[in-house]
Amino acid sequence: MVEPVNSPLGKMLLEEISPVVMVLCTPLVEETFLKNGISFVETLKPFCNFSNIDVPVRTSSDQLYRLKKFTLRLFYASDIRQPNVEVAKQRLEHVITEAGQKDFQDLKSDPPLISDILSNPESEIAPTWFQYYNEELISTLSFSEHEAFDHPVACLLVVSSKDEEPINKFVDLFNTNRLPSLLNDGAMDPKILKHYLLVHDNQDATTERTSKVLSEMRSTFGNNECNLLCTNSSKEGNVEHQANPWASFKSSASATNKLGCVLTGDDIVEIKDLMQEFTSRHIIPYMEQKVRELNQQISATRKGFRNQIKNLWWRKGKDDGPETTKGPMYTFSSNESQIRILGDYAFMLHDYELALSSYRLISTDYKLDKAWKHYAGVQEMMGLAYFISDQSKKEAEYCMENAFSTYMKLGKSGFQNATRCGLWWAEMLKARDQHKEAASVYFRICGEEPLHAAVMLEQASYCFVLTKPPMLHKYGFHLVLSGDHYKNCDQVNHAIRTYRSALSVYKSTTWSHIKDHVYFHIGQWYAVVGMHDVAVRNMLKVLDCGYQSKATQEIFLRDFFDIVKKTGIKHEVVGLQLPIINISSLQVMYEDHRTYASQASALVEESVWQSLEDDIIPSLNSGKSNWLELQSKLLPKKYKESNVCVAGESVKVDLEFRNPLLISTSVTSVSLICELTANPDDLNLVDKEPRSSSLGPESSTEHNLGTTSGFSSFTLSEVDFTLGGGEKKLVRLTVTPSEEGILKIAGVRWELSGSIVGVHYFQSVPVKAKSAKGRRKNKLTPTDALKFLVIKSLPRLEGSIDRLPEKLYAGDLRHLVLELKNKSEFPIKNLKMKISHPRFVSPGNHEEELTTEFPDCLKKGLEQNIVQRETNRTSSIFTFPKDVSLQGDRSLRWPLWLRAAIPGTISLYFTIYYEMENVSSVMKYRTLRMHYNLQVLPSLETSFEITPSPSRLQEFLVRMDIVNRANKDCFQIQQLSTVGCRWGISLLQSVDTILPSKSLLAGQALSCFFMIKDCRKSGTEEEETVSLPPSLTDVKLFTQDDDEKLFDIVNSPLASFHESERSCQGASDQSSPNTVDFILISRLAKSSDPSAVPNLPEILSHHSCHNNIRSSSPLSWSLDCPQTINHNFATSLCEIKLKLIIRNTSNGLSSVTIETIDCLPDTAAPTPSSGNQSGWRYVPSVTEEMKVTSDVMGSRLDKPPSSMESSPPFIWSGLSSTKVQIQPLSTAEIPLQISVFSPGIYNLSSFKLNWEISEHEKASLSASSGTCQGYPYYLTVLQSE
């Protein structure tokens, strides 16, 4: 912190609170000095400031001190008066206006950075004209009646040697009529020091007369009180002063060169000596003597206890008097005025202790007298004395606060004094680094006058930036307030300056509303001063104002376009924020060797296409190469990493535009900014050995920046669209090169309102290129990703699939047509196609001609129209015939079969590979990529359960469960078929009883039963040995038309789709021969909602593969013997030979032990039955026996009817236990024999089979061993005649 004397306030006090010298001069004196372009007082003023006058002074004490710095203030007698308020206001306004005009050129520069502001020294942060304004503001309170430091200390009477009767002129000058009114009214003491000066003009007057007049003066007024000043010594009048001391008095440079033009260096030295002598020998001694006299006088009358009591007694009762704003009037001779003069004189002579004691003494008097303005003035001087003497800071601030508050209580009459007090108080706080407190003082003295408030608010803002740490938000906020006040007073230059400074705070913050406010008003104000280009730049900053209200946005946009139109030109703006471009949405789609049938195809991830094309793209030389490696071997080194496009084919750029506003915005003429450089030397390198070269402006043969379509080298698309409030829109822009060369997409441009051209460049943005090369990491830079090597035109295949529905039911079978076109004159050949989902799509034969409508062409008996199974398919790749070639406008139509295998949203991908001959050395082949999305709705869901027949080895019971999963539609069941020639199928019940309603309703479930028979010969496994008629593999499940043909499942497309289903539905045991495949054919009965599936299905096929025969036991068996035997029991017992046939259905070796049981619990004793002959029992019919079913565990059948008695005993007369080994999937026959003793019906189930599986097959079964009870088998034995 600097010393108070050297602080800005100390220097201000030295200039403002200093002795006043009243000047009275004759007109001829003024005429003499006006030859130099300045008046007499202006001539002397530069020499009234003494930095080291070194004068000894002794005031109230005997201690001597020396004055170093001292200042005189010179005023003409006519100027010693209280300034007119309106005139003073105009002077202050002029100061501000002039300062704004000087700063006008600085407004064209960039706004200051906050870092630069903070790094500047304190003296350079605030504008320099503030000090001059503050001084002018303080001068408006000069010569107040309640203060004494503006009272004249001396009077300088000046007469020219050319005046007639100079002595009389001196006397007439101090005439009462010429004195200021304050001296005549008694406010100021007219008895002041008088000093007489004779001015001699060396150009006009003679020396003799001057000497004579000077002698007469000294004899009349005294030798010490008279002086001579010789001036204007230059005869030519062209003297130029390098450091002109009067430069501050004139503003124009031309006038400055004339100031002091007839004053030589000697003249200036003489003036300087005159003022120093006048000050040191007259002014200071006079004031010193005056202080001593007043001090003695006041000490005698006011100091001491007795005098104080008298003063209080004399003033008793004044507290009860009415208060007035002006208070009592004090003349210069009153005790109060004398004490005030003593204090002010002591202050000007730098005896601050004496000044403080005087102010304290008089302060009480003024307070008791309720002379509040006088009281506030004394408190103000006390605060300054405390500060300048570097005494108590607390006392100084208390006095300033007290003075300020007292002035403010006086109302309007005291506001100007309060303003001056506030300025001094703020400077005092700033000198002590209390900037925050100083800012609050500036804020308190703003007042109601807007221009004055603007200056005070701006000074307060600079205090905030000087605090530690800086209070930047308050700094910016007060600058904005100040700028608003400036604009209200038509001080536009200052308003712009303050708002520009506020930008340094707000442009890097998230305070969007105040930032928009600042930018918008700066733009408006720049337009007012005629700087429209700068106005447009600032208004552009507020276009991204979606957070503002709709009304505010409309104001912003309206004023912006008004300003732009006033310029009369189109403004190109780089980085325009209306609309906002979503750079992350930038997608570049181009076609090199990969072409796309639709937009949907181009948006598919490259990895999907790569996995599909791995098997159809040929290898280069011996090793397998991808496209990137192929390209790198054919292209020059310079373009190995370049994107490649084909002349005549568009490069598409998708870019999202967003309207940040709530109001609609029309965007026109949106197009790409492109450059096409054609260099034949570089392009010829494609077929030659590459050599080093550079591509620059000097080597370019063509360089086009395209904004509209029509260039010969490339064509640009233009798009117009309207964005609603907050709307986003993805816009596709294209560029189509027509020549070979290097194409670069530089950016995008658009127009607003026909007067603003927005430009956005793509130099450093990430680009999503939809044709990434190969599998290795793409090393292209963002800029290179938008650069393309354009090669000559190539054939391009176009493809589409006719009649492909978007929605269909699961199982829906459709006949489609793939149409391929080549519009180029060059032929293509070697076509191959790969499909991502062969389960859904199967290619047909080109020779196929459907003479019968679909789906009748798929029925049996129409073999001439049936699509045969393809013979040219290798794995999943379909190869077109060798003779297929396309060129010109010819098209190829190829049949396709579509079947919706499973419900859900399915993405189908097709890749068609084709080759070109003698067209380009860069590309030998191209691929066409096609993508379609299908929505497959659920339809019928089937499940099958197969159970072995208990009495027939080759027969099985099938239970089919069907559920209609559709939301509304009904389906008709048409046909159920087994796949292959092994299994025959037959109905167990009539069709009408299976589904009486003829159709399966939505959500309805159905169960029905069938019998299937293994038609292989017993003991064989070769299906080829079976010769089953095809009609036995199908059953018709409808009765509407008995003559309607069944669908043929042996040939394509049903057979090929079933092969795909077998691979897709494959289970862990799919290699087991004990599995059955079924195909269910159905139709849509009717559609309750035609919009659900627009194209109704003709036929639906449902494939169920690898259905296992339900068996937890590896054995199946049957008992082979006659059902009825006649025997004469009279001669002997009946011995009956049986044969037990056992089949091993597992894949492992089975060990089987047969145990026979002679007595069963329920046949231990015959139960007689009345009415029946003993031994005769109920014999079940053959049909009833055939209908008996059993589960896989071999559970016993229900007992015969309760009316039938138990059979008499029989015995097993053969082996009681037999063990055999049965090979996997083989059959063994075991002979058995029983002995029957009487006629009757006998249950031959009294045997058990104990089985055990070999070790390697145990894992596939739930149990490795078990026991099976014999099936009931009834034998009827009759007595023969």
TrEMBL record:
Residues 685-707 are annotated as: Disordered. Coiled coil: none annotated. GO terms for cellular component: TRAPPIII protein complex. Residues 1116-1248 form the TPPC8 C-terminal Ig-like domain. Transmembrane segments: none annotated. It holds the Pfam family Ig_TPPC8_2nd. Residues 692-704 have a biased composition (Polar residues). Residues 606-760 form the TPPC8 first Ig-like domain. InterPro entries: Ig_TPPC8_1st (IPR058541), Ig_TPPC8_2nd (IPR058538), Ig_TPPC8_C (IPR057651), TPR-like_helical_dom_sf (IPR011990), TRAPP_III_complex_Trs85 (IPR024420). Residues 811-928 form the TPPC8 second Ig-like domain. PANTHER family: TRAFFICKING PROTEIN PARTICLE COMPLEX SUBUNIT 8 (PTHR12975:SF6), TRANSPORT PROTEIN TRAPP (PTHR12975). This is Trafficking protein particle complex subunit 8. It comes from Arabis alpina.
